[in-house]
UniProtKB/TrEMBL annotation:
<feature type="binding site">
    <location>
        <begin position="84"/>
        <end position="85"/>
    </location>
    <ligand>
        <name>substrate</name>
    </ligand>
</feature>
<dbReference type="InterPro" id="IPR020827">
    <property type="entry name" value="Asparaginase/glutaminase_AS1"/>
</dbReference>
<feature type="active site">
    <location>
        <position position="84"/>
    </location>
</feature>
<dbReference type="InterPro" id="IPR040919">
    <property type="entry name" value="Asparaginase_C"/>
</dbReference>
<dbReference type="InterPro" id="IPR027475">
    <property type="entry name" value="Asparaginase/glutaminase_AS2"/>
</dbReference>
<feature type="binding site">
    <location>
        <position position="53"/>
    </location>
    <ligand>
        <name>substrate</name>
    </ligand>
</feature>
<dbReference type="InterPro" id="IPR036152">
    <property type="entry name" value="Asp/glu_Ase-like_sf"/>
</dbReference>
<feature type="active site">
    <location>
        <position position="12"/>
    </location>
</feature>
<dbReference type="InterPro" id="IPR006033">
    <property type="entry name" value="AsnA_fam"/>
</dbReference>
<dbReference type="GO" id="GO:0004067">
    <property type="term" value="F:asparaginase activity"/>
</dbReference>
<dbReference type="InterPro" id="IPR037152">
    <property type="entry name" value="L-asparaginase_N_sf"/>
</dbReference>
<feature type="domain" description="L-asparaginase N-terminal">
    <location>
        <begin position="3"/>
        <end position="186"/>
    </location>
</feature>
<dbReference type="InterPro" id="IPR027473">
    <property type="entry name" value="L-asparaginase_C"/>
</dbReference>
<dbReference type="GO" id="GO:0006520">
    <property type="term" value="P:amino acid metabolic process"/>
</dbReference>
<feature type="active site" description="O-isoaspartyl threonine intermediate">
    <location>
        <position position="12"/>
    </location>
</feature>
<keyword id="KW-0378">Hydrolase</keyword>
<protein>
    <recommendedName>
        <fullName>asparaginase</fullName>
        <ecNumber>3.5.1.1</ecNumber>
    </recommendedName>
</protein>
Length: 329
């Protein structure tokens, strides 16, 4: 008999009508009533927190990771119920914090509370149970709308539809239905090249470039952050004429602040060597993130900065694939 541990953190799935609007309100016993499973599975339940995922913080990721790490010898798999708004960030963060885990960790939630008549929650719960029971693939995954997604590759695309998440720049892991989980892509096992570390440094900033962004903004950032992520244009380009953002990057890099460059385009990653506007960013010290999702970059940079401030080591760690986060395409 397989033993699974369900960790509840709140979210829409556990929400009820309250005075200020929908908010997590179900008790763990009420939530547990919706976890119908086969007789060959034993399921335990534990409350970690009871938050709308908008209120989730990096420190909460560490609490979640520790709860799984401390129990990984006692259970065959884990399911976490979580709000959808920051679920992709949590999935990425747990992928790094638990990068050496040998068990399946499944995160799920819903667009509509589980107690409502028309809800996607009950199907997602069933699918999470099925995948956690059958998949036997180590790592962190999101189970949602009949699909399993690698934790570092999930992006929330829709605010209302049941198919809220997509796998970006990476195949779906499984199709899940009432008759079981059909594995459609089994990632190759990774060699562990990083040490285990359950910590994060939240002192990062995510900046979306736009025409007209003032380079003086970088002067403010250099005194308030330890790492910067820029969602650039296209293949990694940023302006160097009129409003010169490239010089701002160079100043931050000279002060020892890593600047990670990603793209505002969701699919196909980036190539900073293709155009002059990207090559100048690379020459200024910008660190390319290839085909990583922004959610994964945020979580990985926080995890890396909690371990080192050495610029060359930060670059190496960011650009080394981990939890299948990088360089699939």
């Amino acid at each position: 008999m397989k033993k699974l541990l369900v960790l509840a953190t709140g979210g829409t799935i556990a929400s009820t009508h309250q005075r200020g609007g929908l908010a997590p309100g179900l008790t763990i016993d009420q939530l547990a009533q919706y976890f119908h499973h086969n007789q060959d599975v034993s399921v335990d339940f534990k409350v970690l927190m009871n938050k709308d995922s908008t209120n989730m913080q990096p420190e909460d990721w560490v609490v979640m990771a520790r709860a799984i790490d401390e129990n990984q010898n006692a259970y065959d798999g884990f399911i976490m119920t979580h709000g959808t708004d920051t679920m992709a960030y949590t999935a990425s963060a747990l992928s790094y914090l638990l990068h050496d885990i040998k068990k399946t960790v499944v995160i799920t939630g819903s667009q509509v509370p589980v107690s409502f008549k028309k809800t996607d929650a009950r199907k997602n719960i069933r699918d999470a149970l099925t995948f956690a029971h059958q998949a036997d693939i180590p790592g962190v995954f999101i189970a949602f709308d009949g699909k399993a997604i690698q934790g570092t590759r999930a992006v929330k695309m829709r605010t209302k539809s049941y198919d809220a998440f997509e796998s970006v720049n990476f195949p779906y892991i499984a199709a899940i239905g009432e008759f079981g989980a059909q594995i459609t892509f089994r990632p190759e096992p990774e060699k562990t090249v990083f040490r285990k570390h359950l910590g994060v440094c939240p002192d990062v900033f995510l900046l979306k470039a736009f025409p007209g962004l003032a380079p003086q903004f970088f002067d403010y950032l250099q005194d308030h952050i330890k790492g910067l992520i820029i969602e650039s244009f296209g293949n990694g380009g940023l302006p160097f004429l009129t409003r010169d953002l490239v010089s701002g990057i160079e100043k931050l890099v000279q002060k020892g602040i890593p600047v990670i460059i990603t793209t505002q385009c969701l699919e196909e990653g980036q190539n900073m060597d293709l155009y002059e506007v990207g090559k100048r960013v690379a020459d200024a010290g910008g660190i390319t993130a290839g085909d990583m999702n922004t959610e994964a970059i945020v979580a990985k940079l926080m995890w890396v900065l909690s371990q080192t401030t050495d610029p060359s080591e930060i670059r190496r760690m960011i650009q080394t694939p981990l939890a299948h986060d990088l360089d699939y395409i």
